[in-house]
């Protein structure tokens, strides 16, 4: 195989792998073990103020961002207010890390995320 053919093949392979790359909002994730959203809601007081990781399907309703896992859902806000979350992300998968608040905005449990990876 000629060097140009090899280079072209490598470039095409790189494009194929980058097509499904996650979108990062905020800081890179640290690799914490995920906690189930249902467990967070059931044991909210035990997790209050702790840095955690959650995964789920994105629901975006009236400008509010939620992660859902089966029947449980969790409101997500970014700790840095200057980082907006996408309004068109419903149906995507996301992994987020940040500080869990047993009583977040509106009095319901919420994640104050420092980083969020979104995969469409």
Written description of the protein model:
The protein is an alpha+beta fold. The chain is built from 3 helices and 6 strands. The chain has a 5-stranded mixed barrel. A hairpin with a 2-residue loop joins strand 3 (64-69) and strand 4. The longest helix is centred in the N-terminal third of the chain and has 16 residues, at 3-18. It is globular. The chain starts with a helix and ends with a strand.
CATH superfamily: Nucleic acid-binding proteins
As a whole number of angstroms, the C-alpha radius of gyration is: 18 Å
Low-confidence stretches: 5-18
CA distance, first residue to last residue: 36 Å
Major sheet: 5 strands, mixed, barrel
Write the layout of secondary structure elements.
Elements: H1 3-18, E1 23-26, H2 37-42, H3 44-47, E2 51-61, E3 64-69, E4 72-78, E5 93-101, E6 110-119
Parallel strand pairs: 4-6
Antiparallel strand pairs: 1-6, 2-3, 2-5, 3-4, 5-6
């Amino acid at each position: 195989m000629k060097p140009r053919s090899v280079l072209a093949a490598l470039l095409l392979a790189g494009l194929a792998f980058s097509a499904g790359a996650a979108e990062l909002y905020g800081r890179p994730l640290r690799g914490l073990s995920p906690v189930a959203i249902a467990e967070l809601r059931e044991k909210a007081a035990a997790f209050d103020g702790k840095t955690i990781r959650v995964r789920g399907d994105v629901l975006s309703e009236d400008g509010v961002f939620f992660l859902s896992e089966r029947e449980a859902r969790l409101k997500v806000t970014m700790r840095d207010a200057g980082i907006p979350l996408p309004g068109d992300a419903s149906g995507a998968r996301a992994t987020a890390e940040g500080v869990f608040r047993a009583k977040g905005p509106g009095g319901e449990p919420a994640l104050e995320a420092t980083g969020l990876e979104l995969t469409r």
